[in-house]
Amino acid sequence: MSYALDDATLSDLCAAALSEHASDNRFVALALAAHDPLADIARTVERIVFEESFGLDEAAMVAEYTAYEEQSYFFLVLDRETGLPAGAARAIEGGGKTLDDAPDLIGVSLSAIVEAHGMHDGGKIWDYATLAVLPRYRSDRNGLTVSSMLYRSFINAGHRWDVRHVVCMLDSAAFRNLDMLGVRFVAMAGSEPFDYLGSPANRALYIPFEEIARSMGDMAELLSQPEVPDANGRRRPGARRITQRLAAQVSSGDDLDPHIDMPGFERRAHPRS
Q1: pLDDT tens digit at each of 273 positions of the chain
Q2: How far apart are CA 234 and CA 70, in angstroms?
Q3: For residue 192, what pLDDT is reported?
Q4: pTM here?
Q5: Phi, psi of 81 (to 5 degrees)
Q6: N-term to C-term CA, the chain
Q7: In degrees rounded to 5, what are phi and psi of residue 206?
Q8: Each residue of 36-72: b (16+ CB within 10 Å) or e?
Q9: What does the CA dihedral 206, 211, 212, 214 come to, rounded to 10 degrees?
Q10: Distance CA 207, CA 226 (A)
Q11: What is the pLDDT at residue 270?
Q12: CA-CA to 21 of 20 to 30 Å: which in 36, 88, 161, 201?
């Protein structure tokens, strides 16, 4: 396990992965089990982004996430143009870090959180634990594409494993992006934002898994209607079209699913009860 692959190893692993997962798309997304060698690419992307954004270096990432490695799944987007990673995300089965850390952070017991959101029904819980897009992709629309592929990979994998509940702790930027696409989280047990791991406005959130794609589809439908000017008479047709397209793609998988492979989620390879 590594959060700091050297450049040569990173490049070699990416080249091998891209050769094995054919696609005519610039970006390809992979859903990976924790022990897949490619998962270290995702861990390295996490560390790069979290160190830049929140000051979490390799030692901090090891300290924060080692306890959850066995329950982790990784989502990795690779760029054929550069032969390198573009972004990564992680899900932790069982509620993971969010359900361990949130009670103290929001002042509500775990049992009260579980009761408040109906998570006592025995349904599978996933923590959408990390989302990381490398800096060079954030200045143009490629960053939106990378994020969309990570979101859709999470949805596809969650369907494969019959996930029922999703919890997460999101910083303000990640929350804003998902809210823009129509994902209607609710504040965990009515909590307010709080400081967490270098982020001054983190939110503990809950959403039923099935509501993620459904709410994005609703947003896509809403944005397809004629635009009403805001209070100042302004319209933003370009931004509206982009948001509508992304919400529609992530909710349906159109133009994304053909470029997403899930080697870590094959039932025959990883049987689960």
Answers
A1: 999 999 999 999 999 999 998 888 999 999 999 999 999 999 999 999 999 999 999 999 999 999 999 999 999 999 999 999 999 999 999 998 999 999 999 999 999 999 999 999 999 999 999 999 999 998 878 888 999 999 999 999 999 999 999 999 999 989 999 999 999 999 999 999 999 988 888 999 999 999 999 999 999 999 999 876 655 555 556 788 999 999 999 999 999 999 999 998 875 444 443
A2: 50
A3: 96
A4: 0.92
A5: -70, -40
A6: 26
A7: -140, 145
A8: bebbbbbbbbbbbbbbeeeebeeebbbebbeebeebb
A9: -160
A10: 29
A11: 45
A12: 161
The tokens for 109 are 């017991």
Q: Give 2-5 contacts, CB < 8 A, sequence gap 24+.
A: 2/40, 2/43, 2/44, 3/40, 3/43, 3/44, 3/46, 3/47, 3/58, 3/61, 3/62, 4/44, 4/47, 4/58, 5/40, 5/41, 5/44
**Cβ(208)–Cβ(165) under 8 Å?**
yes
Strand partners, 84: 79
Q: Please spell the DSSP secondary structure of 85-121, one letter per residue.
A: EEEEEEEEETTHHHHHHHHHHHT--HHHHHHHTTGGG
Quote the tokens at residue 91: 């899900």
Q: Beta strand pairing status for 194-196 and 27-33?
A: unpaired
- Residue carrying the six token digits 């994304």: 256
Query: CA-to-CA distance for 53 and 47, rounded, in angstroms?
Result: 10
Distance CA 52, CA 59 (A): 14
Entry field: residues in the chain: 273
Name which of 181, 156, 152 is nearest 245 in CA terms. 181
- Distances, alpha carbon 193 to alpha carbons 116, 145, 188, 189, 229, in Å: 18, 28, 10, 12, 31
